[in-house]
Design brief:
This protein folds into 2 domains: 3-230 and 467-491, P-loop containing nucleotide triphosphate hydrolases (Rossmann fold), CATH 3.40.50; 248-455, Class I glutamine amidotransferase (GATase) domain (Rossmann fold, 3-Layer(aba) Sandwich). The protein contains 14 helices and 27 strands. A hairpin with a 2-residue loop joins strand 25 (412-414) and strand 26. The longest helix has 19 residues, at 462-480. The two termini are 12 Å apart.
Length: 494
């Protein structure tokens, strides 16, 4: 065995979840397994213990596999700063920028870094479970591809195609993907699974049989819709995937949280732990009334702080946040959201280099919202760290991924930042996963707004909740997918 590629008929087909569940299922069987994604395009990232930065999905997949996350598992990370520009991270460290016109032609060095990382993982593990990106049918990008079938060709990886039936048209998507790829690539498509099915899977059987007849790809199973599984996403568009869960807390004891959906939200997974707390209703929104009326408003991280702040002002949401603060309503800013709350943002083109025609200057000193005294200055060197602290006697830990260095000029200490009354800011991500700290913070919010919310006795720790979801994924794969057949694919080189 060496490797397997999991790819999909589209973005958000469920590749990340399938890889996560498969890593756990294979690890349970005693295999030394590691996740891998040659190139990830995401603003949701994590800092490994060695100080390298990788996609959050791959960090979680390493957890599922029971191994330490390293930069080999996501050697190339592209972090979009605008519609035409992405910041490049190679082996966990900043490595310049990639512009839209360079995407198909300027990545040869990235491919070499990705291939070298795969070889390292393959030498150290029984099986490397690789995750593709987008769709292998993006034939316009095939010449420079190193994350889908380009990777599979390089290392003779059998490829499992994941189709999302919730989108509709899954049979056409499966067949269309197979038909569009080249004659040379087609033999790599070894099998397929259907994901996110609701109802009686037997109704699919005639369609699956026809797909197998036309393509030669066998179906290895149909995964059901898993209502309560929402794990660290790659895409800001997936923020809020947890939906409305029935947790038994009565309406008069609930707490509402509005998370502003910024155009360039970064590490929006910070709020997942809030959504997992019984009695806390979290809504990701751009609606002014929701932001005005919520018990707590969160400004999340941003990969383009000055640009997103300008958007906040254009939409009128900045005025809503200011009005909240004037009446003592709680506001929490995280990383880029924290930077927006300051008096001043100094960014000499480190993060705010605009696209052509952008209103945002490439070198700028921009007034912030002025709710927290101080300024932030952006530097070329990126801070990557795993800090630890306390708040009101509660342990707090998180991680830092930022170019901006905050210089407070007043206020009270707060983990990773500072506060003025119920307006708080922190440069640290991930702190809300600390259960005692999160609940103490929510208790403070409830007391401030006069809500009756309190932490539910015996509520599961967030880490246990995440582990439980990984196990649900693995159980679903073992129940509904032929995992033995997947393992067999890795023994039969295409």
């Amino acid at each position: 065995m060496s490797g397997l590629l999991i790819t999909g008929t589209s973005s958000d087909a469920g590749k990340s979840l399938v890889v996560t569940g498969l890593c756990r299922a294979l690890a349970r069987r005693g295999l030394a397994v590691a996740p891998y994604k040659a190139q990830n395009m995401s603003n949701h990232s994590m800092v490994c213990r060695d100080g390298s930065e990788i996609g959050r999905a791959q960090y979680l997949q390493a957890q599922a596999a029971g191994v330490e996350a390293t930069s080999t598992m996501n050697p190339v990370l592209l972090k979009p700063g605008s519609d035409r520009r992405a910041h490049v991270v190679v082996r966990g460290r900043p490595a310049g920028e990639l512009r839209a016109g360079e995407y198909a032609t300027g990545r040869a060095h990235l491919a070499q870094a990705a291939f070298a990382a795969y070889e390292e993982l393959a030498a150290e593990h029984d099986l490397v479970v690789c995750e593709g990106a987008g769709s292998p049918a993006e034939i316009n990008l095939r010449a420079g591809d190193y994350v889908n079938l380009g990777l599979a060709q390089r290392f003779s990886l059998p490829t499992l195609l994941v189709g999302d039936i919730d989108r509709g048209g899954v049979l056409a998507a499966l067949y269309g993907t197979w038909a569009l790829v080249s004659d040379e690539d087609r033999p790599l498509l070894a099998a397929y699974v259907i994901n996110k099915f609701r109802g009686d899977a037997s109704v699919l059987e005639p369609g699956l049989a026809e797909i197998t007849h036309r393509t030669g790809m066998p179906s290895l199973g149909v995964l059901p819709w898993l209502q309560d599984v929402w794990l660290d996403s790659e895409d800001s568009l997936s923020m809020g995937a947890w939906g409305d869960a029935e947790d038994g807390v009565p309406a008069d004891r609930r707490l509402s949280v509005a998370v502003v959906r910024l155009p360039r939200t970064s590490n929006g997974t910070d709020v997942d732990a809030l959504a997992a707390e019984p009695g806390v209703d979290v809504r990701v929104t751009v609606d002014a009334d929701a932001v005005r009326e919520a018990d707590l408003v969160v400004l999340p991280g941003s990969r383009a702080t000055t640009s997103d702040l300008a958007w906040l002002r254009r939409t009128g949401l900045a005025d809503v946040v200011l009005e909240r603060a004037s009446r003592g309503a709680p506001v929490l800013g995280i990383c880029g959201g924290y930077q927006m709350l300051l008096d001043e943002i100094v960014d000499d083109g480190v993060e705010s280099t605009p696209d052509e025609g952008s209103e945002t200057p490439s070198a700028a000193t921009v007034p912030g919202l002025g709710l927290l005294p101080g300024r932030v200055v952006f530097h070329e060197d990126k801070v990557l760290a795993r800090p630890i602290g306390t708040w009101r006697g509660h342990h707090v830990e998180g991680y830092e991924i930022h170019h901006g260095v905050v210089e407070p000029t007043g206020g009270e200490d707060f983990p990773g930042g500072h506060a003025v009354g119920p307006v708080r800011g922190s440069i640290w991500h991930g702190t809300l996963e600390c259960d005692d700290y999160r609940r103490a913070l929510l208790d403070d919010v409830a007391a401030t707004v006069g809500a009756r919310w309190s932490a539910e006795p015996g509520a599961a720790p967030f880490a246990a909740r995440r582990e439980g979801m990984i196990d649900i994924l693995a159980d679903a794969l073992e129940t509904h997918v032929d995992v033995d057949a997947i393992i067999d694919l890795t023994r039969e080189k295409p």
